[in-house]
Amino acid sequence: MTETTVATRRVRHVPRAGDAERKNAAAALQRALDRRDNGGETGH
Predict the structure, then answer these.
(1) Region 21-38: what's the mean pLDDT?
(2) How much is the average pLDDT of 5-11?
(3) At 22, phi and psi to the nearest 5?
(4) Which of 11, 21, 24, 38 has the least CB density, counted as fewest CB within 10 Å?
(5) Virtual torsion, Cα 21, 38, 44, 42, nearest 10 deg
(6) Could you give the CA distance from residue 36 to residue 33 in angstroms, rounded to a whole number?
(7) Do 21 and 29 form a contact (C-beta atoms < 8 A)?
């Protein structure tokens, strides 16, 4: 086979999250980071 096929990557565009969803995700991320920094829920 002398022909080479170039595979084209299809990028599926995800619709952007709404403002409320983004704030909710940011708050969840911040809570997770706070828990990690504080050593867990108990904070010891």
Answers:
(1) 90
(2) 71
(3) -65, -40
(4) 11
(5) -10
(6) 5
(7) no
Q: How far apart are CA 27 and CA 33, in angstroms?
A: 10
Query: Which among 35, 37, 33 is positioned nearest to 25, based on CA atoms?
Result: 33
- In one-letter notation, the amino acid at residue 10 is R
Q: Whole-angstrom Cα distance, residue 36 to residue 31?
A: 9
Q: How long, in residues, is the chain?
A: 44
Give the integer Cα–Cα distance in Å for 34 and 40: 8
- The sign of the dihedral angle between the CA atoms of 31, 33, 35, 37 is negative
What's the whole-model pTM score?
A: 0.45
The token pair at 6 is 């170039």
Residue 13 carries which DSSP code?
Answer: P
